[in-house]
Amino acid sequence: MQDNKLSLSGNSHYCLLNTLLSNDVNVMKLVKPLLNCLMICLAFAISPVQAKPIKLVTTDGVILHGQYSTPRKLTEKHAAVILIHQGGSDHSEWNFMLPSLLRKNYVVLAYDVRGHGKSDKMANMGQLFNDPTLAPKGLAAAIKYLKGKKQVDGTRIAVVGASIGGNLAAVGIANMDVKTAVCISGKTSAVFNLAGKKELALQSVYYISSNENRGLRTKWAHELHKLTKEPRKITIVKSSEGHGVEIFKDEPNVEYQVLQWLGETL
To answer: 4 pLDDT exceeds 50?
Structure first.
C-alpha cells in the first residue's frame, strides 16, 4: 500500500505542476521535459527493480535483444507484461513506465522488434509493418520465453504496445495466448495484415489514440474498438497530436489509465 501512495502522490503533484505551468506556453515548453525526466528518476529511485538483458530467438532464426525485469520480492507466480515499442525506436522508450509496472508486481519483458535497436537487421523494413511472417514471430518468442519462467503465470500475459507495437498487441489477442492488451496509435489495416486473417476475434483490448493525422488515428481506434468484444475500452486524447508514447507526455494521466486497465483485466 505504501508504494501505491507514493505513486499516486507523485502523479498528483506532477499533474498540479503541469496545470499551473500550462498557463504559460513558453515556460511549459522549457519546464515540461525536465518534469518528465524528474518523475522518471524519482520512480526508479523508489521502485524495486531487477533487470537483465536477454536474447530471444524467433522460429525463423532472428535474434532479438531485450530486457527482462522482475520485482525484487518474487512470489511463485506473477502476471507478466510485454512492452513493444513503435517503429524507429527500441525497447528503452518504455523505461518511463517500467517502475510503475514493477510496483504493481508484474514481471516485464521489453524487446527490440527485428530491424530495430540491437536486434538483427533486415533488408526491407517496409515489409515489417504488414507481413504476418515477420514481426508477429518476435511476440511469439517473447510469450514462449515468459511461459518458460517458473515465476510467471503463463495464463496471465498482457501486451502493451505503441504503433506497430500496438498492432502486435491486438494480434496477440487474436492469434496468441495473450489475456489482455493495450493498443496505442493502432491502425486497422495493419492489424488485419499482421494477423494474416480477414476476420479477427478481438477481446479485452484498451485502445488509446490522439488526434494525429487530422483524426485518422482516432478513426482507426474506433474501428478496432467496434470489432472488439467486452471487456474493451477506448480513450481519445483530444489535446494531443502525438504518436505512440508521445501521448503519455502530452497527457500523463494515460499511464494511470493503462495501469488501471491491467489491474482490472490481467
So the answer is: no
pLDDT score of 8: 35
Q: How many helices (H) and strands (E) does the chain have?
A: 10, 8
Task: Name the band, by pLDDT with cuts 50, 70 and 90, for residue 50.
Answer: confident
Q: Cell numbers 505551468 correspond to what residue?
A: 21
Query: Can you give the residue ranges of every domain in the chain?
Result: 1-46, 50-265
Instruction: Using the predicted structure, report yes or no on whether residue 40 has a pLDDT greater than 70.
Output: no
Other Cβ atoms less than 10 A from the Cβ of 92: the count is 13
The three three-digit cell numbers of residue 262, written as one number: 491491467
- 38 by DSSP, 3-state: which? helix
Q: Which triple of cell numbers denotes residue 206? A: 484498451
Give dist(CA 173, CA 186) in Å, integer: 14
Cis peptide before 136 (omega within 30 of 0): no
**Cell numbers representing residue 25 in the block:** 506556453
Q: Does domain 50-265 have CATH number 3.40.50.1820?
A: yes
- Is residue 95 classed as helix, strand or coil in its secondary structure? coil
Asked if residues 100 and 94 have their Cβ atoms less than 8 Å apart, the reply is no
